[in-house]
Amino acid sequence: MTAAVLLIVGGLSIPVYAYVLYPLVLRLLARTVPSPCAPTEWPAITIILPVHNEEAVIEGTLQAVLASDYPPERRRILVISDASNDRTDEIVKSVADRGVELARLPVRGGKTAAENAAAAIVETEIVVNTDASVRLHPGGLKALVTALWDPTVGVASGRDVSVGSKTASPNVAESGYVGYEMWVRDLETRAGGIVGASGCFFASRRGVQGEIVPAALSRDFAAPLIAREHGLRSVSVPGAICFVPQASSIRREYRRKVRTMSRGLQTLFYKRRLLNPSRYGRFAWMLASHKLARWLVPWAILVCGAGSLLLAWAVPTLRPPVGLVWGFVMTCSTISWLMPEARLPRIVAIPAYVTWGLVAGVHAWISSLRGDLTPTWEPTKRAALEGPIAERGPSRTASLGGLRKAPE
């Protein structure tokens, strides 16, 4: 019984620290940050949009970027086609007369490889990275650029808003988790700076964007780490809103979580020297608390689960409630996996989302430790977000640094 209690308490200590105590400490460290002043003249920026076979969503995404309130003459929209073989390139060309350029990788290399290749084309001091499946708020670009007007800031991250069906589904818990994550990033910003940017929408200085990141790693996670190495901090920008559609099934969400966590673990190992508290102080603690501690939670829950089974074996009166909890969780998880597209009630969807997230975490650790690299993958299928579609026009392309001019 003593061993069971130790396993349960020890297992729970990591998630309690990562998700409860860490934010509480951040609140104690947080200070009031004055709002940055907007530049008197908006600087030139380059918006990089890597895509692979996104014909279903790319037009709406480009229309949303074009509809932003950033001065059109001060922005360059550069779509990097990662060897797309559907109508993606054709759709991009159709809005070229509005300042959209197309550059094409002849061989597929993945999102990070496309962003690396784009670095040879970028000439502006500020670079914005975004995705094909999301929609940007019209004021998002100005909000990011305003944050970067502070010379101590190297990366400015957008605020993700998870959107989808209003009915209960396996992804109903995703909105809550994304909101929690944005809250923690706001606290980190006030306590010194964030340790990871939003993969859907972030901006960085040219010196940060220009550093080559291995294709199997995550640039959105690596960017704040690179900025810290340059002596710059990274911030979360509440006004830079990015609407992110939810995955349509728990299976797709599972695959996405395995991939993102595995790439995150490999990125952290690549930049592991930033975990050295004697050199990087508070940043090292925040990096370990926000990233490493969270990624250890799946293993901690396994330990806690083993402790609960051991406790039930030692104390017969606890067997029914422990068995009931285990049975309920397993039932919810099984139903969600066998009925991936079904609209499930919250009482089923939330436990299933959490459980499969934990399983995905274990899977990601195993993949990462085995050295399984995933520079390329099939984009997670998400529902296209509704939005205004502007008129099409002829095309314009770019070619440089390993990028091949798209066919006319």
End-to-end distance? 73 Å
- What is the string of SSEs from the N terminus onward? HEHEHEHEEHEHEHHEHHHH
CATH topology label of the domain at 28-249 = Spore Coat Polysaccharide Biosynthesis Protein SpsA, Chain A
Provide the low-confidence segments as ranges. Answer: 165-170, 387-408
Proportion of beta-strand residues: 5-15%
Indicate the percent of residues in helices.
40-55%
How large is the count of helical segments? 12
What is the CATH architecture assignment of the domain at 28-249?
Answer: Alpha-Beta Complex
Class from secondary-structure proportions: alpha/beta
Number of strands: 8
Biggest β-sheet strands, sense, barrel: 8 strands, mixed
CATH superfamily of the domain at 28-249: Spore Coat Polysaccharide Biosynthesis Protein SpsA, Chain A
Mean pLDDT: 88
Shape: globular
The rounded Rg comes to 22 Å
Strand order of the largest sheet: 3-2-1-4-7-6-8-5
Can you walk me through this structure?
The protein has 408 residues and is an alpha/beta fold. Helix content is 49%, strand content 14%. The longest helix is centred in the last third of the chain and has 38 residues, at 277-314. The radius of gyration is 22 Å and the shape is globular. Strands 3-2-1-4-7-6-8-5 form an eight-stranded mixed β-sheet. It has helices spanning 2-29, 58-66, 88-93, 111-118, 140-148, 172-191, 206-209, 219-229, 250-270, 277-314, 319-338, 346-370, and strands spanning 45-51, 75-82, 100-105, 126-130, 135-136, 153-163, 201-205, 233-245. It has a domain at 28-249: Spore Coat Polysaccharide Biosynthesis Protein SpsA, Chain A (Alpha-Beta Complex), CATH 3.90.550.10. The chain has twelve helices and eight strands.
